[in-house]
Every structure is written in structure tokens, then in C-alpha cells.
Amino acid sequence: MNKTKKMILGSAAIAVAVTGYSETKKKVDLSTLPPIPGIAPAVRPDKKVMIEELLAQIPENYGVFAGEQLKFKDVEPQLRSVLKNPRMAQSPKENIIKTIEDICRSVLEKKALLLLASKDSSYKELTDAEIEKEYQNVVARYKGEANLERMLKRDGLTIDYFKSMVSDNLIIRRYIDAFRDAIPLTDAEIEVEYNNNRARYITQPQVQASHILKKLPKDATDDIKKTVKAEIDAILAKLKQGADFAELAKAESDCPSGAKGGDLGLFTKERMVKPFSAAAFKMEKGEISEVVETQFGYHVIKVTDKKAGGQKTLAEVKDQLSQNIRFRKMNTLMKQTINKCIADNKGEITFKLKNDTALNQAPKQRMIKINPKDINKSEPIKIVPSKAKAVKAAPAEKAEDKKETAK
Predict the structure, then answer these.
(1) How far is CA 129 from the centre of its chain?
(2) Distance (Å, rounded) from C-alpha 329 to C-alpha 322?
(3) Count of CB atoms situated within 10 Å of the CB of 321
(4) 6 pLDDT above the threshold of 50
(5) What count of other Cβ atoms lies within 10 Å of the Cβ of residue 3?
(6) Architecture of domain 205-308
(7) What is the pairing mode between strands 310-311 and 202-203?
(8) Domain range 47-182+331-357, CATH architecture
(9) If you write DSSP's letter for every residue of 161-181 in order, what string do you get?
(10) What is the model's pTM?
(11) For residue 359, which of 35, 132, 291, 313 sits 20 to 30 Å off, Cα-Cα?
(12) Where in the chain is the domain with CATH 1.10.4030.10?
């Protein structure tokens, strides 16, 4: 008997034992059943209550940096915004605690970054115009200020609070960019990076082409194919007579690329379906193909550029190599710089959340063993802990007999 059947039988047996009713057509409201002795009910923790209890542990001044108190009221909107995420409701309590502590720590690190930025030689005050431009960039990503305001309201944030975050983040981003670009590199480091990653800088041959497509519907009949083939043949004839390829593509192509004169940009062989690639990669620059049939329909192709593949030289990829090395170094150097700034300015988080496991997990249920052979019998089934065997309750009249015998 498979596990699913056993589970079904077990559930049915419990219902029969408690209600004394065995008609399977009638549904049993499990919420009305009394608790089974020896089995703890499954209690799901109320995560909202838990989160409020955790937030209540954070003192009004939860940290300090450069003599300035870090205030809970300043970080509370950000905390509540993150903790409202539905995924947090599924997280164990220790993960929620880590999230809260990480956010509080991030505020301390942000204070350090803003101080470092203000002392950097590249630092300059932001103008209102720069802040507004950055804010409008964010608005554009949310497809309008109304959408942004709705999102902020949902997360309990105000526009003013959000604009202050935009301003701070812009200052920090500029400082980090300047920090990264100032990391010194030697030619020897760049050469080692190149030699260790030569395979990354091998390019495949590429073709740039334009095409005119006449689409074929799925399951096209022979008559439809003939009609569409005649249309593409007529287009090819015009091209051979000197018609402008781009203009014909705009007027006749069934592909969205027609709006750009049929231009598909640069591509490798693998990016296009085989018949199309096979034709395009055999052609010379400026050549126009005969009609090519693919799963999409009939094409006429014009090759506009070709690039041979091969190993890129060190000079060609030097800037990219330098950027890769600096990004890698920056992660370590920036962390060290932030930690030093925090230490120099006597910064610290002054609280630690308690992890009371009482709200962290539901009590485990004890397993029940039911003997499937007893399910269809008229006597009620006795529920016993898993280590004991399932047994039938003795009939009432025989129990009385035993009492008489005992006397």
C-alpha cells in the first residue's frame, strides 16, 4: 500500500473513532473534532506578532557613530518595508532576526560611507537639479510618479524620505566609483589576468545582415505556399533590378526588423535557425541571397558586414581586464575601509535581539499508527501512540463480565 493510501486510511480511521459515524459520503468538519489525547495541536506562529515583538526589543537609540545616536525612528520605515515582504512570513525567526540586524548594520555602514565621501578629494555637494534628475530616473523605472507613490505608500514610506535616500545613494555611488577608479594596477597584473582568462576573449565569426521575410502560417497548404513564394520571388526580382533593399524591407517584410530596413545586427551562427545561418555565412559583404526557406517562411538576405572570429589581443581587452581586477579588489578594500572608518569613529550597534524559540516553531505532532484491517469493523478504534500497536476496544458487555469475574 502506497503512502498516499495509508494517509487517507489513517484520516478516515481517526474520523470514525471520534465521531462513531462510518458513512463515507458525509464530510466531516475536522475543525469541530475534539483534540486527540496525547497529540499536540499544530500551532502556526503569528509572524506579525513575532515581528512586532522583535521590533519592540530595539531601543530608541540602537547604535552610535561619530558621537551621533542612531535612532530607531529613522530606520523603522525601511525595516517595516522589508519585513512586509510576503516571503518574510515564510522565514524562520532566526532569518527575520538576521534581516533586522543586517538592516541596522547597513545604516551604520551608510553613515561611514557618507563620511568617507565627504572627506574624499573628488567630493562635491549635490545640486537640487542633480537630485531631481536622479529622482526622475527612478520615476521612469516605475513608469510614472503615481506608481512610485503607490509603492511607497504600500511600504509605509514618504516621498521626502525616499528623496533623501536617493540623494544619499547618489553621493555614495559617486564615491564608490571614484574609489574603484583610484585602485592602482600594474601592467603585470593585467597581463596575468589576460593569460589566465584567454578563453573568455575568443570570439566566434559574426555576420551582420538584413532580410525581408514573407511569413508562412503554420500548416500552410501547397496553394498558400505557392502564393507566398510568388510574393517573395517578385521582391527578389525587384532587388535584382536595383531596388533599394532597406526601402523594400520597410514596405514588404513581415518581420518587425522591417521598420529598421530589415537590419538584424551582428549575430553568430548559433543565434539563427540553420538554413538562415548557412546561407548568410557563405555570402560576401554586400551580396544578396536567393530565396531561403525556414520554419518562419521565405527570406531574402543581404549581408552588410562580416567579422572574423579569433583571439582578442591584450590591447583590445585591456580596459575590460582593468575593470574586472578593480571590481574584484574593490570588494575587499572597500570593506576594510568601511570597517576602519566605523572603528575610528567609535561606531557600533548597541543591541542584540533575543531569539525565543517559543514563537519560532510549532510543536511536533506525535505519529499515530492505525491498523487498516480495523477500518471497516463496527467497533470504534482506539488511538494509541506510535510505539504501541493499534488495538480494538473491548466490547462493553464483555468488560462488564470481567468486572463480575473480578468480584
Answers:
(1) 33
(2) 11
(3) 21
(4) no
(5) 7
(6) Roll (3.10)
(7) antiparallel
(8) Orthogonal Bundle (1.10)
(9) HHHHHHHHHHHHHHHHHHHHH
(10) 0.58
(11) 35
(12) 47-182+331-357
All three cell numbers of 333: 578594500
Pairing of strands 61-65, 348-349: antiparallel
Letter for the amino acid at 265?
Answer: G
Phi/psi of residue 87, nearest 5 degrees: -65, -25
Q: Yes or no: say if 112 and 118 are a contact pair by the CB < 8 Å rule.
A: no
| Residue ranges with strand state E in 94-238 | 202-203, 206-215
HSE, side-chain direction, 13 A CA sphere, residue 94: 2
CB atoms within 10 A of CB 51: 20
CB-based contact 265:208 (threshold 8 Å):
yes
Q: If you average pLDDT over residues 299-318, what whole number do you get?
A: 95
Asked whether 381 and 392 are in contact (CB, 8 A), the reply is yes
Given the C-alpha cell 471497516, which residue does it identify? 376
Enumerate the CATH 3.10.50.40 domain ranges in the chain, comma separated.
Answer: 205-308
Q: In angstroms, rounded to a whole number, what is the distance separating the alpha carbons of residues 341 and 69?
A: 16
State the Cα–Cα distance between residues 277 and 274, nearest whole angstrom.
Answer: 5
Residue 286: which region, alpha, beta or left (left: phi > 0; alpha: psi -120 to 50)? left
C-alpha grid cell, residue 40: 499536540
Give the whole-angstrom CA distance, residue 336 versus residue 318.
27
Q: What angle do CA 213, 218, 221 make, to 5 degrees?
A: 95
Tell me the C-alpha distance between 396 and 399, whole Å.
Answer: 5
Could you report the per-residue pLDDT of 379-398, keeping only the tens digit for each?
A: 544 444 444 444 444 444 44
Strand-pair partners of 202: 311
C-alpha cell at position 145 = 510618479
CA–CA–CA angle 123, 165, 153 (5° rounding): 165
Read off the pLDDT band of 123 (50, 70, 90): confident
